[in-house]
């Protein structure tokens, strides 16, 4: 608890420094507090060149942060969250402390000089590095180290966006990938502490000023559902465009890496000259879109422009997040969609701004598949309970459609492209790369579904397994029954009650013969009992039995 509070305080202070750096560099490079609020304006100190200064601003920024990242912390390049996910999944939560300093400067320089990225990825990496550093200093266990990293991420999100609940769920849903009472308590402490510090510095206001909306007609729910489906496609499309442009930048650049951001800054400057609304994070543009101040064609242009500008910023080696760009893209999509349905159904569609709000959450959910975080942060932004039902509907549909369209999220695809599978073994691990079929034990004798519980209790007590497979009258596999379930049922039921194991059979996650052991072990951890049946195919019959003891025998195989 003490460590969580300390990390939250550090993340809150880090967010203050980070935002101050962004504002300072933005004023230095553009002459404005936020150039997106005055797109196309001249630099006050370079009025002779007019708006053409945006051609050179990204180049100058790249000349500063390119050598910094290349020399001191290469992991500070890009959007940050995947590196934190990797550290938690395969590196025991270890993150170099210098990442916090380098990420702060590199991301602030990137955004300040026109990079069209967000600040959530950097602050997550900064807070997580603080948590990891404190964990190493206090010599905590690996499990606690991972939790402290998540506390840093939660505190960073909470302080930066004044969204304490979103910080908690972001950390658990994306960084830890699990929900437990201990994780919830620790991340809440860090998030609340960081939020208090953030509010003392920035005030108790949302980072976006969004208008209020409500659902006026029952038919609007169908329109919001359709928006969720479209948003999933756009979210997945954003992911594809991001890495397509990154590949193109890799292919095109043959010079030293430290010079890449400056050289690529010329291309980014050309985009900013053509569409100055892409300068920086772009929150003023997003707010205007939700207020209905743009035409549909311009909204679509902004949507496409943001995809290109964000992808180009990251592709040339810039440092910044993709969370804010996904909200921006979702707002443009939702506002355009809302204007369209208003034209088609003027009496039933409702205000276009409501679709912009829902689109923000739905596109982020489609790209990241973090539906709880998406719902919570939009609710915290608006403070309107009336929007929660359409928001939940669209976000859940966007998440489901995204899962059908692609295996990876915008975060995990970056790692998979580097040959890293978060569900697979860590590089060099002695256990995990093998196939389940090479370590499985013979399948125990199955229990017929009609077996009385008292007989099943005797068989389970003698089997040496905490669970046994169950088959129906036709001999087809229907699930497993655990010793725990049988013991609890016998303790609760009156003597002589006619019960059989078929009623207690549970169907665990399927594990197949050719599945990697590392992935199967994840299923084994959450499985009922102490083992899992190994199937010949996902809907097949058991051909073996997987246990932790069997997995350990890999160490003695030649």
Could you give a quick summary of the protein structure above?
Helices cover 59% and strands 5% of the residues. It is mostly helical and 558 residues long. It is globular and about 90 Å long.
Written description of the protein model:
There is one protein chain. This protein is mainly α and 558 residues long. It has helices at residues 2-30, 57-72, 81-90, 98-112, 120-138, 142-161, 164-176, 181-202, 220-252, 260-274, 283-290, 296-315, 323-344, 352-368, 371-382, 388-405, 412-417, 453-463, 483-492, 517-525, 548-552; strands at residues 447-448, 467-471, 477-482, 511-512, 531-535, 542-547. It has a three-stranded mixed sheet with strand order 1-2-3.
* Uncertain parts: none
Q: Considering DSSP H and I runs of 4 or more, what fraction of the residues is helical?
A: 55-70%
Strand order of the largest sheet: 1-2-3
- Please give the alpha-carbon distance between the first and last residues: 46 Å
Please report which band the strand proportion falls in: under 5%, 5-15%, 15-25%, 25-35%, 35-45% or over 45%: under 5%
Determine the number of helices (DSSP H or I, runs of at least 4 residues).
21
The largest β sheet comes out as: 3 strands, mixed
Mean of pLDDT: 86
Oligomeric state of the chains present here: single chain
Q: Helix and strand string, N-terminal first? A: HHHHHHHHHHHHHHHHHEHEEHEHEEH
> Would you report the number of β strands?
6
Global Rg: 26 Å
Structural class: mainly alpha
Q: What is the global morphology?
A: globular
């Amino acid at each position: 608890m003490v460590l969580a509070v300390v990390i939250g305080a550090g993340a809150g202070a880090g967010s203050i420094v980070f935002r101050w750096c962004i504002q300072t560099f933005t004023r230095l490079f553009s002459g404005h507090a936020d150039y997106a609020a005055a797109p196309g304006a001249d630099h006050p100190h370079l009025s002779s060149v007019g708006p053409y200064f945006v051609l050179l601003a990204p180049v100058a920024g790249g000349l500063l942060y390119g050598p910094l990242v290349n020399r001191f912390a290469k992991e500070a390049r890009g959007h940050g969250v995947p590196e934190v996910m990797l550290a938690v999944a395969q590196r025991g939560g270890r993150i170099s402390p210098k990442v916090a300093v380098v990420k702060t400067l590199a991301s602030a320089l990137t955004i300040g000089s026109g990079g069209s990225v967000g600040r959530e990825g950097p602050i997550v990496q900064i807070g997580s590095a603080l948590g990891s550093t404190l964990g190493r200093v206090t010599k905590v266990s690996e499990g606690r180290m991972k939790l402290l990293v998540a506390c840093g991420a939660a505190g960073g999100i909470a302080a930066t966006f004044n969204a304490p609940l979103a910080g908690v769920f972001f950390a658990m849903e994306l960084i830890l990938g699990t929900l437990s009472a201990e994780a919830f308590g620790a991340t809440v402490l860090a998030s609340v502490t960081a939020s208090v510090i953030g509010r003392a510095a920035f005030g108790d206001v949302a980072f976006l000023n969004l208008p209020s909306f409500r659902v006026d007609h029952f038919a609007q729910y169908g329109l919001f559902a359709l928006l969720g489906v479209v948003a999933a496609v756009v979210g997945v499309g954003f992911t594809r465009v991001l890495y397509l442009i990154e590949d193109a930048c890799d292919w095109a650049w043959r010079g030293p890496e430290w010079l890449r951001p400056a050289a690529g800054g010329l291309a980014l400057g050309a985009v900013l000259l053509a569409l100055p609304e892409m300068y920086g994070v772009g929150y003023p543009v997003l707010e205007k879109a939700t207020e209905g101040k743009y035409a549909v064609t311009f909204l679509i242009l902004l949507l496409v422009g943001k995809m290109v500008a964000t992808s180009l910023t990251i592709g040339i080696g810039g440092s910044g997040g993709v969370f804010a760009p996904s909200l921006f893209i979702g707002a443009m999509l939702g506002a355009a969609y809302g204007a369209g349905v208003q034209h088609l159904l003027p009496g039933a569609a409702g205000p276009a701004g409501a679709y912009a709000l829902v689109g923000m959450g739905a596109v982020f959910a489609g790209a990241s598949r973090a539906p709880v975080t998406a719902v919570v942060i939009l609710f915290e932004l608006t403070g309107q309970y009336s929007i929660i039902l359409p928001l939940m509907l669209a976000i859940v549909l966007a998440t489901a459609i995204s899962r059908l369209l692609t295996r990876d999220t915008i975060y995990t695809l970056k790692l998979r492209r580097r040959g890293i599978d978060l569900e697979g073994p860590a590089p060099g691990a002695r256990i995990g790369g093998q196939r389940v079929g090479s370590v499985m034990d013979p399948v125990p004798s199955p229990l017929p579904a009609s077996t009385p519980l008292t007989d099943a209790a005797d068989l389970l007590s003698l089997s040496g397994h905490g669970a046994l497979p169950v088959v129906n009258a036709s001999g087809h596999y229907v699930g497993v029954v655990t010793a725990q379930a049988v013991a609890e049922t016998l303790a609760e039921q009156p003597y002589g009650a006619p019960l059989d194991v078929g009623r207690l059979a549970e169907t665990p996650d399927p594990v197949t013969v050719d599945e990697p052991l590392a992935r199967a072990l994840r299923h084994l951890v959450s499985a009922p009992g102490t083992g899992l049946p190994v199937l010949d195919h996902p809907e097949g019959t058991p051909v073996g039995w997987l246990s932790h003891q069997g997995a350990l025998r890999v160490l003695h195989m030649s």
